[in-house]
Amino acid sequence: MKQQIRIAAGQGFWGDLPDAPVHQVEGGPIDYLMLDYLAEVTMSIMQKQRSRDPSAGYAKDFVPLMKQILPACVERDIRVTANAGGVNVEGCATAVKEVARELGLSGKLKIGIVTGDDIMPRLDELLGRGVAMRNMDTGAALDTVRDRIQSANVYLGAAPMVEALNAGARIVITGRATDTGLTLAPLIHEFGWAIDDWNKLAAGTIAGHIIECGAQCSGGNCQYEWRSIPNLAAVGFPIVEASPDGSFVITKHERTGGWVIIPSVKEQLVYEMGDPRDYITPDCVADFTTVQLEYEGRDRVRVFGIKGRPATDTFKVSISYSAGYKAVGTLVYSWPDAYDKAQAADRILRGRLDRLGLKFEEILTEFVGANATHGPLAGKPSTDLPEVQLRVGVRSQNRADVERFTKEIAPLVLTGPPGVTGFAGGRPKVEEIVAYWPALLPKTEIQPKVELIEV
After folding, report:
1. What is the Cα–Cα distance from 350 to 341, expressed in whole angstroms?
2. How many alpha carbons fall within 13 Å on the CB side of residue 297?
3. What dihedral angle (degrees, nearest 10) is formed by the CA atoms of 281, 121, 447, 145?
4. What is the tens place of the pLDDT at every residue in 15-44?
5. For domain 322-434, which CATH number applies: 3.30.70.120, 3.30.460.10, 3.40.50.970, 3.40.50.300?
6. For 450, phi and psi rounded to 5 degrees?
7. pTM of the entire predicted model
8. Parts of the chain with a pLDDT under 50
9. Any bridge partners for residue 114, and if so which?
């Protein structure tokens, strides 16, 4: 058993810094590269892509990245865990296989694929057997939106990824797996942790949580003394240095920008935090109130003392569905009386929409530069603001009403308050609204499938 492994985060979301994974591979020694591509809305985007093109539905930029780093990964014995497979894991793996062969790596690596998370084809069967998959926030039954569902994916945990690693996979590609599982799986594989060693599983889960958003724990988006953060232009992405006992150090490669300090780690710890005592994953329940932090040197924060409890008997399901249409229009009003002008324009616009008899589920107005960020907490806006952006959004099940709204923004330039600018890019675009439906599903209903592809 190794006494330490280094897991580097190279991607915090689909669209993160393209060269970050390359720097993680080339910047110093690592054992694993963890790449997190998926968010809730991402699955519906990929499902739409695949409906138009059966070969699509995964993070296509993952493939050229693999072409760039695979030779170094093979030479330096670096393994990759990634949920880049989206809703087409097999297609993603096939594309990576072709790239590996182009690079002359035939016979030198195996690709593990994890499927079974996509339950879209099974929805009617599950609903027919009385599996309601009620909305966790509202209690509504899923059949109320069945005809509008675009994607439905279970959050798989670390176990199937561990199986792939145990079978010798150099690259493990999944669909909708938990962000934390991408880091936990290598720890279980390397250290041989038992599937019911809840404290260690919780430690690995929290390690994954800290690095899942990439540089957000190493200086990016950091509120603490943000002016002092060095060289964010070359920010270093985080690395977990883990030990068999479950303790670990958060660090980054030397001579990179950003910083790893206790406040930056704490800020990431509370990201997407509900009850800190009950951070529920498919693998365990982690207690964030037991986390202890201490410095172990510059850009080195040691994390230890973590406790965990048994996993629940359900998987979380991420479901997306069509929820109507929206459009957002903006205009900028200049000094003097910028805020008053923007308010007047909003009243005029709403009056015209009402006169037209348009029906909207919601009309939302924001005054950017005055109170859009903090709302009522901003207090009374200054009367001397240099400029205020009027931003108005509408949503409706009726696309025609939203289309009509888009034609009412530009006329305000000549038929509303003075000193307006900022109307560019043409009329606002009508966009489909994709809503999120969180639900639970008994684990007995899901059988993840693990396959190995020989390159």
Report:
1. 14
2. 6
3. 30
4. 999 999 999 999 999 999 999 999 877 887
5. 3.30.70.120
6. -115, 125
7. 0.94
8. none
9. 174, 450
